[in-house]
Amino acid sequence: MTPILDSRRLLAFATLARIGSFTLAAKELHLTQSAVSHAIKALEDELGLRLFERRGRRVALTPAGEHLLIRAQRILAEMQDARADLAALVQ
Amino acid sequence: MTPILDSRRLLAFATLARIGSFTLAAKELHLTQSAVSHAIKALEDELGLRLFERRGRRVALTPAGEHLLIRAQRILAEMQDARADLAALVQ
DNA sequence: AGTGTTTACGGCGACCGTAAATATG
DNA sequence: CATATTTACGGTCGCCGTAAACACT
């Protein structure tokens, strides 16, 4: 019953898309590259879509990946807003 | 490193807010009421905010809960859209 | 060969269900 | 007393890190 588009996965995906490297994305996320690789693979497998093209050391979004990136950025921004909104209510 | 606003929690929260009963919300979510109670309590504890007022069998949103509901609905709708968008790309 | 990614494997934590305790009407 | 929620407890599954295998330049 795991939601495919989990916030953690979306963050890993968006970070990798922005940075273009598993190693550096993992560093920014305070994870290992193994964990990032797992998360992306799980996303791709469960969606049935390839999100990145691996050409050697280059990592670039596929068209499907570009679709998801737009969605992911919107969702992550909403979550950020929500957290800020609620944090302001705690006194 | 667990994101507070997890999609699962948000779904449980929004469902409970709409239905107003742990038991019935759990049924709709295909979970036990215990699981829903846990999820809501975790949300409330981690946010440091009470989201529902329990008056006997009545479960109603607090002001903070109403804030979160608006946010949660938006986020969940975005996720729904994203899934639909990506599903359309799978042939 | 060296850097980067994937895969295998083990451990730890989160989440859920069962069931007991508690509350409410 | 019956129904609903909370809490305690145990098991299972998922996620992460270590480390080995693999790929590319």
SSE diagram, text form:
The structure is a homodimer of 91-residue chains.
Chain A: H1 7-19, H2 22-29, H3 33-47, E1 52-55, E2 58-61, H4 63-87
Antiparallel strand pairs in A: 1-2
Chain A binds a DNA duplex (25 and 25 nucleotides) through helix 3.
Query: Which oligomerization state do the chains in this entry correspond to?
Result: homodimer
CATH class of chain A: Mainly Alpha
Strand percentage of chain A lies at 5-15%
Percent of residues of chain A in helical segments?
A: 55-70%
Assign the CATH topology of chain A.
Arc Repressor Mutant, subunit A
Radius of gyration of chain A: 14 Å
CA distance, first residue to last residue of chain A: 35 Å
Q: Give start-end ranges of low-pLDDT stretches of chain A.
A: none
The domain tally of chain A reads 1
Record keyword descriptors for this entry.
91 residues, two-stranded antiparallel ribbon, DNA-binding, 4 helices, 2 strands, homodimer, Arc Repressor Mutant, subunit A, mainly alpha
Explained architecture:
2 copies of one chain form a homodimer. The first copy, chain A, is mostly helical. In chain A, 67% of the residues lie in helices and 9% in strands. The first copy, chain A, contains 4 helices and 2 strands, in the order H-H-H-E-E-H. The first copy, chain A, has helices spanning 7-19, 22-29, 33-47, 63-87, and strands at residues 52-55, 58-61. The first copy, chain A, has a two-stranded antiparallel ribbon. The longest helix of chain A is centred in the last third of the chain and has 25 residues, at 63-87. At the A-B interface, helix 1 and helix 4 of A face helix 1 and helix 4 of B. The structure holds a DNA duplex (25 and 25 nucleotides).
